[in-house]
Amino acid sequence: MKKFLTLVFLYFFFNCFSQNVKQDSIIEKYTKKCAYQFHYLAQGWEDCINEGLKADSAIAIFWHHKALPLWKTRKYELALKSYDKAVKYNRKEYLGRRGFLKCIFLKNYTDALKDLDAATKEYGDAIQNDHSYDFYKSLCYLQLNDFDKALKLMQSEIDKIKKQSGVDWVSPLCYFYTGIIYYEKRDYKSAVEELDKALKLYPNFSDAEYYKALSLYKINNDFKTYLESARLAKKDYDKGLTFKEGDSPYEKYPYEVNWYLINLDD
Questions:
Q1: Which of 12, 154, 192, 236 is least enclosed, having the fewest CB within 10 Å?
Q2: Per-residue pLDDT reduced to its tens digit, 101-153
Q3: Cα–Cα distance for residue pair 182/57, rounded to 1 Å
């Protein structure tokens, strides 16, 4: 019996090994030797990935790559269908990433939280685009107007970074969003304090400057000073001193100032 079980184990081991080797060969053929020769928005990229899927439709990275240009061109419905397949075939690798994409691109915050919570429970915390799951969970709760949960998670993110890497590694966006949460909770003094922390790390960060001006106006009711500060923030925005996240050129982040809606007239 023991010998039989050993033979069964060896059979499955070598079968899985052979399957992995075969898939690795297919991946290399249609990515490194094909798709990666093109920009991901080029038709050649799409053609290579589609050929890869014809060769083996159960390879998760092909579905990830198929979705990539769709996310960037805002074809969200198609992008999500492809990414669902990526998660199906490699849940550990792509579940948390799908939560990030739902938060920043799709802006479906309830579904994003489901993915991020599940990824945390099943595989532990992880990083997506320089921030942990807690950061994106906080943004989701912020966008759902659950400010207490948003604050708790953003403070958890800051504390975690300080403990693991030191205070110098905290992103200015963590302080920015903490300031935003305090603003929404109508604690304008705390909002200014947090936004000042963001501005210390990222001087002339136009979005932080604007919300600081808005918070001070709520405190002092000094419209003239608010207007002067808001105009300075707009000048810094025009210099490109705004969000610099990896995906911010493609997607607006929560509370990124829409200057079209801001009246800077007297």
A1: 12
A2: 999 999 999 999 999 999 999 999 999 999 999 999 999 999 999 999 999 99
A3: 47
Average pLDDT over residues 244-258: 94
User: Can you give the chain as a three-state secondary structure string?
Assistant: CHHHHHHHHHHHHHHHHHHHHHHHHHHHHHCCCCHHHCCCCCHHHHHHHHHHHHHCCCCHHHHHHHHHHHHHCCCHHHHHHHHHHHHHHCHHHHHHHHHHHHHHHHCCHHHHHHHHHHHHHHHCCCEECCEEHHHHHHHHHHHCCCHHHHHHHHHHHHHHHHHHCCHHHCCHHHHHHHHHHHHHCCCHHHHHHHHHHHHHHCCCCHHHHHHHHHHHHHHHCCHHHHHHHHHHHHHHHHCCCCCCCCCCCCCCCCCCCCHHHCCCCC
Average pLDDT over every residue of 197-218: 98
Decide if pLDDT at 8 tops 50. no
Considering only CA atoms, which of 94, 148, 143 is closest in space to residue 116?
Answer: 94
